[in-house]
Amino acid sequence: MAVREIVLLGDPVLRQKAKKIHRFDPSLQKLVNDMFETMHAADGAGLAAPQIGLLLRLFVVELDDEETGKHHKIAIANPEIVSEEGEQCGLDGCLSIPGYYGVNVRRAARVVMKGQDVRGKPLRVSADGYFAWALQHERDHLDGILYIDLLESPDDLRVARREEIEEEAGAIE
Ligand code: NI
Description:
Helices cover about 25% and strands about 35% of the residues. The protein is α+β, with helices and mostly antiparallel strands. It has one domain: Peptide Deformylase (Alpha-Beta Complex), CATH 3.90.45.10. It starts with about 25 loop residues before the first helix and ends with a helix. About 30% of the residues are buried. Bound molecules: nickel (II) ion. Nickel (II) ion binds next to helix 2.
C-alpha cells in the first residue's frame, strides 16, 4: 500500500470526465487499497480516482454517520445514481481544495447508487444522510464537478483552518 499524492484545485485532471473501468484485475484492488490509505492519511471521508490523477470512474468512501451511529465503507467502480429523493443542505469540503469549505450546499437526502465492486461484481447501495452526501460528492468528481460549482453565492465559500471545519461540521451534526 502507498499514500498517493492528492491533486489540488487548478489541476485540469479534476475537471475532466473519468473513463469507465473495464478491467477488474488485482491491480485494481491495489489501487483501491492505496486510495483508502491516501484518504485516511489526509483525514478525509472520501476520495475519487481523479484526485490522485487517474481518470477512472472509481471512488472510495469511509465514514461514521454520527446521527445513526453507522459505519460505512465502500469502494465503487462505474457508479450511477439510480434514484434520488429529498434534499439536505449543509457544509461541504474537499481534499483537493484544502483550507476552504462551502456552506448552504444542497444535495439529495437519499440516493440509490449502483456500480461494481473491485472484482467487477454488480453492487447497489441505498444511502441517506452523510453517507448519501459523500456518495454524491465523490460521484461528481468523476464528471469533473466540484462542490464549489454547487454554491449559490460566492459568499458561501469560506476560508478555514482545518480545526474550524471540524468544529463547524460537528455543530451541524
Ligand atoms: Ni472532493
